[in-house]
Amino acid sequence: MRKAKVLTNILLLTTTLFTSKINAQVFSKGSGILNLGIGLGGYVRYWGHGYSSTPYFNAAFDYGVYQFENEQKLSVGVGGFIGYKSVWYEWITTWRDKNGNWHIDQPVKSTWTYTYIGFRPSLNYSFNDKAMVYSALNIGYSILNHRYSDPTYYSSTSYGSSLGWGLLVGGRYFFSNSFAVFGEIGWGMSYLNLGVSFKLVK
Q1: 98, 62 in Cβ contact below 8 A?
Q2: Which of 65, 6, 4, 56 shows the shortest CA–CA distance to 35?
Q3: If one looks up domain 2-201 in CATH, what number appears?
Q4: Is pLDDT above 50 for 19?
């Protein structure tokens, strides 16, 4: 009789732990997660000999603000993002300086820098306490600056800000309570974004 009671208690404890594991949510109302990523591709790109660019370096923060009553694993988040990318073109040319002197086969460099900052609402679904998927809409400003230089001439021009947006879907997998890897695909400053996530709140 005692053995049966012990086995019953073990079974109840195991079932409780398993159920809580399944029902646990890695992202919910009150959660805060920071992404640090490197993006590849995107609508800011150039082709041809002499063109080079950095990846799209970016950071984003998502904070859970609403939990659906009928589907506890589904939540709404809001947050922000910031990103940076630089593209430059170098070529060899012959030119004449301000003093009238000719320079034969001298290098010239033209650089475009993009800074992207804005707002990021998201819809999140947690499978358990390890894995989740989400979709997000990035809405923000793309700030473009152009710099042109040669050995005796230098100029820098701000092209101003323009409103932009992008859609993405992504997923995170947590290896601990606070550390995860993530991947995102979508349309915007990058087509593929990979990086690490840190759970800072809850």
Answers
A1: no
A2: 56
A3: 2.40.160.20
A4: no
